[in-house]
Automatic annotation (TrEMBL):
Protein name: Lon protease
Record field: catalytic activity: Hydrolysis of proteins in presence of ATP
Summary of the function given for this chain in its UniProt record: ATP-dependent serine protease that mediates the selective degradation of mutant and abnormal proteins as well as certain short-lived regulatory proteins. Required for cellular homeostasis and for survival from DNA damage and developmental changes induced by stress. Degrades polypeptides processively to yield small peptide fragments that are 5 to 10 amino acids long. Binds to DNA in a double-stranded, site-specific manner.
Annotated compartments: Cytoplasm
Domain of life: Bacteria
HAMAP family tied to this protein: lon_bact
GO molecular function, one term: ATP-dependent peptidase activity
Amino acid sequence: MKLSDYKAFPADIPVIAEDELFLYPFMISPLFLSDEKNIKAATKAIEDGSLVIVCPTKPSYEGEREFESLYNAGVVGSIMRKVSLPDGRVKVLFQGLARAKVIKKVQDDPLIAHVDIINATNVSSLKIDAILEIVREKVRALAAVSSYFPPDLLKTIEENHDHNRIIDLICSSVKLKKEQAYNLFVETDTEKRFLDLIEYLIDEIEANKLQKEIRSKVHTHIEKINKEYFLKEQLKQIQKELGSDTSRDEEIEEYRNKLKAKKEKMSEEAYKEIHKQIERFSRMHPDSSDASMTQTYLEWALEIPFGEESKKKLKISEVENQLDKDHFSLEKPKERIIEFFAVKELMELRGVKGNSGAIICFSGPPGVGKTSLANSIAEALKRPLIRIALGGLEDVNELRGHRRTYVGAMPGRITQGLIDAKKMNPVVVLDEIDKVAKTGRGDPTAALLEILDPEQNKEFRDYYLNFNLDLSKVIFIATANDVGTIPAPLRDRMEFISISSYTPQEKYEIASRYLIPQELKKHGLRKSEVAISKPALKELIHSYTREAGVRNLRRRLANMSRKVARELLEHPEISRVSLTLKNLKDYFDKTVFEIEKTTKVPVVGVVNGLAWTAVGGDVLKIESIRIKGKGSMQLTGSLGDIMKESALIAYSVVKTLIDTKKLKIDPQNIPLSIKEKEEKTAVDLSEVYKRYDLHIHVPDGATPKDGPSAGIAMVSVISSILSSRKIRSEIAMTGEVSLSGDVLPIGGLREKLIAAHKADMSKVLIPLKNYERDLDDIPQEVKDSLEIVPVSKVEEVLKQVLV
């Protein structure tokens, strides 16, 4: 195929844009076309039987094929073959014929340009031959230090006498940048093309010589390393045969390498301490006791993940979704948790450094979800979770680490937690922080003061490591059952989020949504194999568990799952087990009467008090009897000092009410002496409390009870027994009483009202201050089932309860 076979130039021909290759006239190359304009240009050339020009795109080109994105020069040639590929591309076989230059554009789609052939200028034959000899010499030199020119190409360059073809052959073989290739391509002066090419060849020769020298050095170095490795392996075998070993030297070198790798991420203090211990270890006799102790230290210290952190960005939306997914109800705790992390996220977004507030402490009865909330937080943040059980912790060194002078010394639990997590910013759960014990071996709560203080834990010193650790990026979450047992300075370091008891309806939802599916899965059961009716599940919650949370309920469901699994194996014909009220006793051992239901029959000397316990709220029936005597009072039922004082205050308040005639006494209730009966002496009504001894008892005597909140219940029961007036048994009450007869606010209102709801009480008396302040925290179903009456004076209480 010759250029003369086509119409004369200049001519209007299609343009194909090429991103990768820089083509030359002598080349036959396959081109893979994916751009629509390129495909249209190739198609037009084939249909019209015309040539095409392939122009390279500029290096900075991005976007659609435009004339401005192409170099204004390229190779004119013909398309020998065209094949459509399955992926939508088109493959064409292109034969280059001549260099050409784009004069102007003619059409955009497809690209068509007015093109003319680039003709080289005539030069002195003698001079150009001399320059050509220099070019061939440089090509031979470059071929000696590189793999650019295969032998057949070198032979072609030596034997060819077409100057411009030689230049094109050389340019196509060496690595030219697009701009360099373009400048050589469009140059019409053959002498200048040769001189520019010589300059490039000289630079390329120097670069390849340098590369060859470097490769030679690297090869020599690798050979040396391989030789040393071979000799060391031989030496090891010789030493093993002789009974000696150099593994200790290798261990020391390994410690040095580990320390070097961590140097940039650790503090200068930590680096100096570990480096000092490595040098000491290298000088010690391997059989000495100090060597073993120092080696253990180095293994611990070099395992600390200095600078390693979970990189996931904090998003409160993910925290909120995870909390909602894992926990039902608990709106207030969830809201407070999200607020806590909202502050952290805002500080991250605005680049504010520093700790963002107090440590969270979840407080509440067992089984309400304190630890599982922390698990959900760790899951949402995609950080490792470390749980440190503080229950019964007595030795402060368990937290701070033992000094290395002691046998069996090791880092504290905090440091071990960081090593296990392999990150410096895990979520650390300090479980049962209220059960830390103080003994002669130190006070662990004092160490917790530093660990949980955002201002101090940046430089927490572990006694074992003997350098400071930065704990400021750790998220600490504590859990506690009873906040009152935590020392005041430690309480000041934490922000408490109270998690209260669940209502029966909340327990039902938790059981049906979470517990039952989880337990069935744990015991290999399918959902289709077990059916629990709604009444049966409610009866299970009401009569078979006694708790504020759902831990015992989970145990009961696990017990049920085991029985069902056995039943399915022993009776293959059964495909589905249904639990109803009728067969509930077959799967559960015995009922636990959580709270006794009210009889709604008024009685004298028995009142319903409400109490807070570690497992939630409870209804306490306070009983009283009167015996002829001299006005003394006896208290039983394992009562604490505060509750005894509350009873004495209540007795004094009732005496005042009788003296001021605010509590009416029937004269027939006053016991008379024989003489008073004979003489029919008029007796003062206030004599009633002087002629009876009272015995007040709070049942379940084995359970310790304390607190002032039974005050108004004590007033009610003493008033009832002295006046012989009955107390409404469907009313429960809670409130502290003062000597002046005021009803004072109490704590634990949510648990107490839930207990009253479970006992089917119709009315509850609470202090006015609690009514104004705490009623928003009470579940709506409890408020709907109870008439909650606020009281501020004992007279109001007696008016409500005495018949």
